[in-house]
Amino acid sequence: MNNKPKYTLFKNASYAWDGLVHAVKTETSFKIELAIAVLFFPLVYFLPFELIYKLVLIITYFMIMIAELLNSAVENVVDLVTVEKHPLAKAAKDIGATAVLFSVILHLLCWVIIGVEYFA
Predict the structure, then answer these.
(1) Which pTM was predicted?
(2) Confidence class of residue 8 from pLDDT cuts 50, 70 and 90?
(3) Tens digits of per-residue pLDDT, 24-74?
(4) Dihedral (C-alpha) 8, 24, 41, 94: value to the nearest 10 degrees?
(5) Residues catalogued as catalytic
(6) Is 37 exposed, middle or buried (0-12, 13-18, 19+ CB in 10 A)?
């Protein structure tokens, strides 16, 4: 049995929109990251950095939000599959959290490198 729906651009876009709405309603970390993005993106626009540096900062911030969404997806699947505490369930959730952490570290490193380059 194939439970995969027929592909249409608008239907698939609606799935993405539904996922975004669900994340905003249920994921506190994502809500915080989204609120920061609303403030952060205009700030980056007005910084006196070159365009390429601004793009790096925006892209790496998007990577944080993408990692957070993927982490939330993993956590939802793990919670669906088991209600028991299982070492593999914990490992899956911890690895997802590590992906978010690494994306944050990458973003902060970009800020440091760009800041040092600009202010040196």
Answers:
(1) 0.88
(2) confident
(3) 999 999 999 999 999 999 999 999 999 999 999 999 999 999 999 999 999
(4) -100
(5) 68
(6) middle
**Which residues, at least 6 apart from 89, have a Cβ–Cβ distance to it below 8 Å?**
78, 81, 82
User: In angstroms, rounded to a whole number, what is the distance separating the alpha carbons of residues 119 and 53?
Assistant: 13
d(Cα 43, Cα 38) in Å, to the nearest integer? 9
Cβ proximity of 58 and 41 under 8 Å? yes
Minimal CA–CA distance to 36: which of 51, 15, 18, 57? Answer: 57
Query: Tokens at residue 5, please?
Result: 């729906």
